[in-house]
Amino acid sequence: MLKEYKSVTEVVGPLMTVEGVEGAAYEELVDIELQNGEKRRGRVIEIEGDKAMVQIFEGSSGINLKDTSVRFLGKPLELGVSPDMIGRVFDGLGEPIDDGPKIIPEEKIDINGTAINPVSRDYPSEFIQTGVSVIDGLNTLVRGQKLPIFSEAGLPHNELAAQIARQATVLSGGDFAVVFAAMGITFEEAQYFIDDFTKTGAIDRAVLFMNLANDPAIERLATPKMALTAAEYLAFEQGKHVLVILTDMTNYAEALREVSAARKEVPGRRGYPGYLYTDLAGIYERAGRIKGREGSITQIPILTMPEGDITHPIPDLTGYITEGQIILSTQLFKQGLEPPINAIPSLSRLKDKGIGEGKTREDHADTMNQIYAAYTAGKEAKELSAILGETALTETDKAFAQFADMFEKQYVSQGFETNRSILETLNLGWELLSIIPKTELKRIDDKLIEKYLGDKENEEEDSKDPKNLENEGL
Questions:
Q1: Torsion over CA of 220, 144, 274 and 25, rounded to 10 degrees?
Q2: Are residues 136 and 46 part of one domain?
Q3: Residue 467 resides in a domain
Q4: Within-domain flag for 473
Q5: Which residues lie closer than 8 Å to 169 by C-beta, 6 or more apart?
Q6: Degrees (nearest 5) of the Cα angle 228, 111, 282?
Q7: Is the same domain home to 429 and 336?
Q8: In 262-334, which ranges are E strands?
Q9: What 3-state DSSP class applies to 52?
Q10: Does residue 465 fall inside a structural domain?
């Protein structure tokens, strides 16, 4: 039997203290009725004796301590799931906001899921094509991986997120779905995502959760869990390969800090709660593959680094938990590169598991390593030229500097509308590597050089042959 209490003793920010409570449970859902009949919802976040601390989703403004009644519902916050969720847009608490019909759920699932048991995990080993060359060619995304994007305020991470969401696919086939969760974004940003998904048709395989900047911070804390609950249902119950994109995790962490301050908890680094690491891990570790199950969950969390500081607690802890990072560069953005991904510090720790013969192509690993080395050498040569002048460079240094320029213009800056296949990316890599003398391609097997560069050299020699020039009337 549900009990109703009128013993609210304190309200601080989004938190309410109720005394004389019996049998309340952690994460239990609560109905709150104000003196004017308005109803709000909350959840229990702390219990001490007969006191329960309740987190109010809609905020605490207008609450009268004496006349407010609280009812504990005996169940946690749940999401009603169904295959009909695909193609729909929801708010941060899982309510439809696209003027469509209500979802008739097949089941209701507690959003406070758990990380996948390590014993049950299957190792990520299958390539996911995003259509973005710097990711596919150099920082390969693997099915079941969690690969964050580190950005800064003002950089086009939203455009990159939308591009990946509409282009991503698994080459081996199978049903593919995208779960997109936006936290603390503006109305214009939310409309951009909805319009882009709708215009390109990506909405037909996507589920969108939108939490706006003017929505309560408490709702922001539930949004990624809602998205991951939907993803787990689609992946492990419906057998789909699900890509989860979470943006912006910085807004999520800020909401966590706000609630922590209201609870008067002892702050950790830069005011964030000491459990920020475990809280983020509870989100990120819900990605992966399960042995014996067809589906999988791959995560791309996106976060903006405050003041571009990669040592800030949010990117710092995210880097510990996830398997690499894609880093956007302000400098490349100012040069007009789209997307402005800085290839040198970016890293995918599982890339070697998703590339090679039978997955992408046999030359992928060698060309990836050579492109990294050549780009790094080219950047160093350009720095040397800026200090000592171009005359100080050898012919080889000049070739590497030219490679670095062409790499940024052609390989990195492909635009947000271009969808390159992995074969197009690999072939473009070989075209750029042809700028460098063969003797400097020390990271590629000679057989691969002969196979992919030999024909091009023969073509170039044929074009310079006097007989061919005569035939062309030159």
A1: 60
A2: no
A3: no
A4: no
A5: 128, 129, 176
A6: 65
A7: no
A8: 288-290, 296-304, 324-327
A9: strand
A10: no
Model confidence over 266-280: pLDDT tens digits? 888 888 999 999 999
Among residues 128, 139, 140, which one has the least CA distance to residue 167? 128
Backbone angles phi, psi at 437, to 5 degrees: -55, 145
- Say yes or no: 51 and 97 in one domain: no
Q: In what order do the strands lie in the sheet with 169-170?
A: 141-142, 127-129, 169-170
Choice among 185-194, 242-251, 453-462 with the minimum mean pLDDT: 453-462
Cα torsion angle, 355, 140, 301, 279, sign: positive
466 burial level (CB within 10 Å; 0-12, 13-18, 19+): exposed
Helices 217-236 and 249-262: crossing angle, nearest 10°? 130
371, 346: one domain: no
From the number of C-beta atoms within 10 Å of its C-beta (0-12, 13-18, 19+), residue 252 rates as: buried
The answer, yes or no, to whether the previous bond of 309 is cis (omega within 30 of 0) is no
List the one residue out of 288, 324, 299, 346 whose CA is nearest residue 133.
346
Secondary structure class of 470 (helix, strand, coil): helix
Domain ranges, residue 323? 79-353
Quote the CA–CA distance of 114 and 296 in Å, as a whole number: 15
Distance CA 462, CA 460 (A): 5
124 is a domain residue: yes
pLDDT in tens, 415-458: 999 999 999 999 999 999 999 999 999 999 999 999 888 755 55
Q: What are the counts of helices (DSSP H) followed by strands (DSSP E) for the chain?
A: 13, 22
